[in-house]
């Protein structure tokens, strides 16, 4: 049984070559991507290959992505191949106006997860039973003999009506199975059909409320209409929305995390300012951070007194690990392909310490 269960889109990023504007760019390179797919591969490279529920088209891009996931050690059990064109995400050059990503292809293929297809069997404990009283973060490390998997999902699927329904079903099943849940807001306004903004924002709020850990950037939450605050104040808004731990990434300024009294570490606040590195391509750096953060925080435990880690050391260590993973990922072009191994992250941290 996998330690993690990740759900969401896999797509192809078209990354521009050198040039500040589209007029100056000579061409684009295709790279595997999609926020949940990047997190899944990141977890695999950091030592915890997850089960991954995703959808791929039956075109050549879908075949390319299927081969990539297999090469990364992702089981094909929950990788659906469906008729249609795989979504392409075209990354804008640094100085281009407008959104950072433009999406092309079939939204139905990539984001149209079926609510009747939620692989609930993947969420049960090894004996086939749900954890009777649920499982809190930190209560046991993932993958233990009596532990259901940690569930991670992203917000892009919420832009599709079927994807919203499937996400609700998955969250409900995860709660019933006692799985800890993390949710990456990852709001992409360009994916929201005209007239659906309110429905998508409502679905994002519901997902935050149903999750243990909510992750986002300031821009994600502002675009989704959830909050206009930043940093620690934004994290506290997410706690008010229902999550017991909130993580806000702030690019080259690092990240902040806040836990409520319901979190295993108690009402703790932690910040890590990140690492100074030369960035070649920041595409997918947030996903690399998420993989690193989850791989570290999933093993955190409540201390013997039961009071939790109230000085924030567990959160701070997870932020450092996430920031190190992200820092190493920006050194080359592409999102998924640039995520480092566990050995590389640990070596990087040892050098910086």
Automatic annotation (TrEMBL):
Query: What domain of life?
Result: Archaea
One Pfam family it belongs to? PfkB
State the residue spans of region: Disordered. 115-155
PROSITE patterns in the cross-refs: PFKB_KINASES_1 (PS00583)
InterPro entries named in the record: Carboh/pur_kinase_PfkB_CS (IPR002173), PfkB_Carbo_kinase (IPR050306), PfkB_dom (IPR011611), Ribokinase-like (IPR029056)
Query: Can you provide one Gene Ontology molecular function annotated for this UniProt record?
Result: kinase activity
Question: Keywords for this entry?
Answer: ATP-binding, Kinase, Nucleotide-binding, Transferase
Start and end residues of each Carbohydrate kinase PfkB domain: 4-89, 151-341
Please tell me whether the keyword Kinase is annotated for this protein. yes
Q: Which family does it belong to?
A: Belongs to the carbohydrate kinase PfkB family.
Protein name, as recorded:
PfkB domain protein
Organism, by scientific name, is Halorubrum hochstenium ATCC 700873
């Amino acid at each position: 049984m996998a330690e993690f269960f990740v759900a969401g889109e896999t797509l192809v990023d078209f990354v521009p070559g050198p040039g500040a504007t589209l007029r100056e760019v000579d061409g684009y390179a295709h790279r595997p991507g999609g926020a949940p797919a990047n997190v899944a591969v990141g977890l695999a490279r950091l030592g915890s290959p997850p089960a991954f529920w995703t959808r791929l088209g039956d075109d050549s891009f879908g075949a390319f992505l299927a081969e990539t996931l297999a090469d990364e050690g992702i089981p094909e059990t929950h990788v659906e191949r469906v008729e249609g064109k795989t979504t392409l995400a075209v990354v804008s050059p640094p100085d281009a106006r407008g959104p950072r990503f433009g999406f092309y292809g079939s939204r139905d293929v990539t984001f149209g997860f079926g609510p009747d297809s939620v692989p609930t069997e993947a969420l049960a404990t090894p004996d086939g039973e749900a954890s009777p009283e649920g499982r809190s973060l930190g209560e046991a490390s993932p993958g233990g003999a009596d532990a259901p998997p940690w569930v991670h999902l992203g917000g892009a699927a919420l832009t599709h009506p079927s994807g919203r329904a499937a996400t609700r079903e998955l969250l409900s099943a995860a709660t019933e199975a006692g799985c800890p849940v993390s949710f990456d807001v990852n709001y992409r306004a360009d994916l929201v059909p005209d007239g659906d903004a309110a429905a998508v924002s409502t679905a994002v709020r519901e997902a935050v409320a149903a999750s243990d850990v909510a992750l986002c950037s300031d821009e994600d939450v502002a675009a989704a209409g959830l909050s206009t605050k930043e940093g620690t104040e934004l994290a506290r808004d997410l706690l008010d929305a229902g999550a017991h731990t909130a993580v806000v990434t702030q690019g080259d300024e690092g990240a902040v995390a806040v836990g409520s009294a319901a979190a295993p570490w108690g009402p703790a606040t932690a910040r890590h300012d990140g690492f100074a590195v030369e960035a070649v391509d920041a595409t997918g750096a947030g996903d690399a951070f998420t993989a690193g953060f989850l791989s570290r925080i999933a093993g955190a435990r409540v201390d013997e007194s039961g009071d939790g880690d109230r000085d924030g050391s567990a959160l701070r260590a997870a932020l450092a690990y996430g920031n190190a993973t992200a820092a190493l990922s920006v050194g080359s072009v592409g999102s998924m392909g640039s995520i480092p191994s566990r050995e590389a992250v640990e070596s990087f941290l040892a050098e910086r310490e």
